[in-house]
Amino acid sequence: MSAFPLPDTHPDYAILAPLAAGIENRAGGAAGLKSGLPPLFRQAVDEVIDAPRTNRFTISELEKTEKTYLGTKIEILLRDFLKLPKGKILDLSIDGVEVDIKNTMQRAWTIPLESHGHPALLLRLNETAALCDAGLVVVRPAYLNAGQNRDAKKTLSAAGTFNIWWLLRRHPYPPNFWEVLPAAARQEIFAAGSASARLALLFAKLQRQPVSRLQVQAVAQQHDYMKRLRRNGGARDLLLGERIALLSGRTDAALITALRLGPVSVEEFISLTPETDEELALLTAAGQLS
Prior knowledge:
single chain; five-stranded mixed sheet
């Protein structure tokens, strides 16, 4: 059911089991949670960085207040994903049970006084390793470190983590596109000239890797950035000259599946140069190379 559930002999089992089931059921099962939650984290981070409008590319470039807001952004997207309301006191209500949401990009979670005695949904992102965690815990004094900060907040202790019902544990999530792209390649792309030329070079260099609309917008640096992807002088024409096909997750989903390119969302694009006769035949039949 869950990645690493607690044993039914654990004192918190009766509290956490229905909450874990409630989350997974609303996500479309364990598989739905694994496929839906990681992209949500990526979306939240990318939207807060806002590369198209700020010319920033990594989380290290954010201001302290923006990093704090990232937790709020994740809460908002998570409630929408699970179609669950906000609690009267805490961040989430699951079948009438109030649950706090705590997010961190560090090793430990900081727990406020108002969470004590309540269940909490713990979320953790590691941008460097592109791994995420999600788990449920009942916040009990015995699970917390003795020390506290000036706001009387404590952290979950190492021993306390053994009381977490893990929904996702060190699960991959989409890496930061700009971290994957070498700095030299980024500089080359942004120096390529027109918006169409920049996008063509982007998709020529990053083949067989999904690229989101946000990233396309950041490279194009124009309000009508989607127009720069099309034919009639756009990036597609430039790529066709190099026998590179550019596919849309929205309009070319069946072809992407047939090419076994992996999951590409409706908000993403992917490019490729055919490497086999089968790929060449599929792309040619679909009119993608002419």
